[in-house]
Amino acid sequence: MSNSPDSDPWSATAGAVRDALRRHLADDRPTALATVVDVEGSAYRRPGAKMAIPVDGESLGAVTAGCLEGPVADIGREVVESDAPTVETFDLTDDGDDAWGLGLGCNGVIDVLVEPLDGSLRAPLDHLDDVRPVAVLTAVCETESVPVGARATLTVDDEEDENDAAGG
Fold first, then answer.
1. Per-residue pLDDT reduced to its tens digit, 17-44
2. Does residue 104 register a pLDDT over 70?
């Protein structure tokens, strides 16, 4: 993972990642968003940890302590190109596999949603800017009628805005 000149990607706050996402949306910059959605066992980051992955630049944020950022960034670029969200499972529990965990604490199973950044996150980001409560529900398992990446947003006013991340 690359370092941004003005920010350490490992210590990027949730607010810094959201700010980057807002800038990328405003600039129509092709970007992927990676989010830890499940962890079993040992991992440095918990569900909700995010990483913004612009296709043409440096990532910001982290989904692990460095164990997976490179492979996740590669997946992010593929996801933007294909416009198809995916959930990738990384099983780092194999003690003999030093390529992933390096024996440094990444010894769990980590599920990461990697999705192209699109306009369906603009409203939730605006709500957070205005310090208004918002819930974003994103499908991480495909069903017959709901694809991975389908999204619904719920505000405190009970206004539901359904957006299909896969279809716009």
1. 999 999 999 999 999 999 999 999 878 7
2. no
Q: Which of 49, 50, 53, 9 is nearest to 30 (CA)?
A: 53
For residues 35 and 52, give the distance between their C-alpha atoms in angstroms, rounded to a whole number. 9
Burial pattern 70-96, b for ≥16 Cβ within 10 A else e, equals: eebbebbbebbeeebbbbeebebeeee
Residues 6+ away with beta carbon under 8 Å from 83: 116, 166
pTM of the model: 0.81
Residue 94 is predicted with a pLDDT of 67
3-state helix, strand, coil in the chain (%, to 5): 25, 30, 45
Pairwise CA distance, residues 87 & 150, whole Å: 12
Q: What is the pLDDT of residue 57?
A: 86
SS in 3 state form for 58-127? CCEECCCCCCCHHHHHHHHHHHHHHCCCEEEEEECCCCCCCCCCCCCCCCCEEEEEEEECCHHHHHHHHH
